[in-house]
């Protein structure tokens, strides 16, 4: 995927990054044999985002188009990538883009317009200090083009069969927010990954229903559930999050596999959005990135 001494641009098209985390992440990535360039406006702030929409879009377009940049790594999630999507040009090359959380919106746009390597993995501000060694080892191996092990999964609902298709999805809230836009999820023939953080169960039900009723999940071949961090029901509730997820997803009649260690927890195992994969008793697996 990346050659030694490749240049990685770090951008913040969404929330305001923690600069200490960015510095630590940049240092780690440099130790892997890559050059790191920070976007010109990385330290800007505007309300809850890392600069105005214009500034963030400018940095993102620089990272996606400039000569000499081989990959793009998002500094932080939060919210804001959607502001940049209308300005993405046609004809972008397939340089790797790495991130998670709000990067789901960017991936949703890029998977339709240019493909290439879209790596759902840890943000740069977390890679050095807020994820575990397994997460770091996996993302490094993927960047080097090495084969990685499947992400383990447990059967949750529907048929216990293995399915194959493009792997799409990411953060549930972001995917639901894209319904009705040009970048809405297209799950036809695809394995849909869903993960979430700090959403209570009734909101998770609402988000899944938004995807179902908007047709975003039509034609999917399977569902892979990642981590749902801090998404527990209120104290005293007579139900669990798993009850809500099962009732929301079982009507699809699809194989649903859960407990994939990806999303917003310390173990955030990377996978490639838009690439072919299989999901079943052996977990979520994809071919070696090249």
Automatic annotation (TrEMBL):
The keyword Hydrolase applies. Residues 164-279 form the LD-carboxypeptidase C-terminal domain. SUPFAM superfamilies: Class I glutamine amidotransferase-like (SSF52317), LD-carboxypeptidase A C-terminal domain-like (SSF141986). The active site is at residues 101, 195, 264. Gene3D superfamilies: Class I glutamine amidotransferase-like, LD-carboxypeptidase A C-terminal domain-like. One of its GO terms (molecular function) is carboxypeptidase activity. One of its GO terms (biological process) is proteolysis. Keywords: Carboxypeptidase, Hydrolase, Protease, Serine protease. Transmembrane segments: none annotated. Residues 8-121 form the LD-carboxypeptidase N-terminal domain. Belongs to the peptidase S66 family. This is LD-carboxypeptidase. It comes from Polyangium fumosum.
